[in-house]
Specification:
11 helices; 69% helix; two-stranded antiparallel sheet
Length: 235
Amino acid sequence: MEHQDNNQTTALTQTAESHAISLKERCEKLDLCNPANISQTFSMVRTQQDAIALQNSGEPCMLSIKRNSGDGGKKMLAMIKLNIAALDRFLHLKNPLSEEEIVFTSQQIVEEFGGALTFADIHLVLKDAKAGKYGKFYERLSASDILEWFRTYYDKRLDAYADFSMNMDAIRYGDARSDQHTLARLGYALHTREDGTQFIALDQKRVAEIEEERERKRQEELDRKRQEELDRESD
């Protein structure tokens, strides 16, 4: 039984580490963060907690990429610009952002949030904007609008990080078995590195199971509603 548990832990660790990316890898694979790829690259990141867990697993912040990319962060900045431009096109605004506004916005994002946020966070902010979570824009979008989205996101992320840290402390010093069950229900797993430090990361297998369960319940609800309609029609 113990041998089986060890095998499961090893498998979970390997799965979690596969989602993390080293600083060197991220600098080499920035194309994975362009508008065509970013949704797939961070497909498992759906909440701020997910982004924090991924960063805790090794996903580097923008400032780390800038300092270690070898080009002073030029390609990283280009990826941010491409994503903002793609958002601007997606919104079909009457007066699109100018190139100057896109450059300024991208630079400000790095300057204000580069030491804390990753490309996973950028993905979440822009995805929420596409979903209308920051309001609707018809005529135009300004640099200040986008930066305000990031400030709002960052403030909420600070709270999410505090919760994440408390959960991590509870796991380290509390009932580890119980807390790991809680993590599993949320799609995370606790892992231990070779140096003994611990980190929380997404567990792809568990996330897939959660998604399957959600889809099953959604389908059951649809079937129930259809049956209710049929029952009413028959009456």
